[in-house]
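=== How it folds ===
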Amino acid sequence: MIGNDVIDILQSRKESNWQRKGFIEKIFTLEEQLLISNAANPEITVWMLWSMKEAAYKVYHRETKIREFNPKKLECSIDSQNKNTIRGKVICCNNIYYSKTILANDSIHTIAVSELENLKMVIEIKNESIVKDQNGIPYLSLSLQNKFQDVSKSHHGRFEKVVCIRT
């Protein structure tokens, strides 16, 4: 299963003041707050962690059909980081989701999957033939094969990302 989230950094600066009183404490666990306070760029770390939570929540919602986004119930950890790519995990209700975040100059894009090996098989697709079920979960309609494939769709500001696991 797959989820993704994209953040337009310029749009987030217009829409949200992450430095306002209580914001960090309301959204992030103590461990995550420590990551933010120790980061070279706290703003990017805030939105990276937020993106990880959003992407993992989409997988969780797809699996459980439970629609309850409580950011503190999604606990992020970082496994590795190089210049522009961060790999991590998000734990939600004893479920582990594996994430890969790409940092660009003006965007943050996170992909989350339920199986680690699926991170290597993620592809970006066009926003065509996407349908949603009664729970609002998106699928790619493969009409010639009369099948549906799991996809994740995210849009923020100037960016839209639709991804699936290559089969």
In short: The beta strands are 2-8, 74-81, 85-92, 95-103, 107-113, 122-124, 130-132, 138-142, 147-156, 159-165. DSSP finds four helices and ten strands in the chain. The chain has a mean pLDDT of 93.
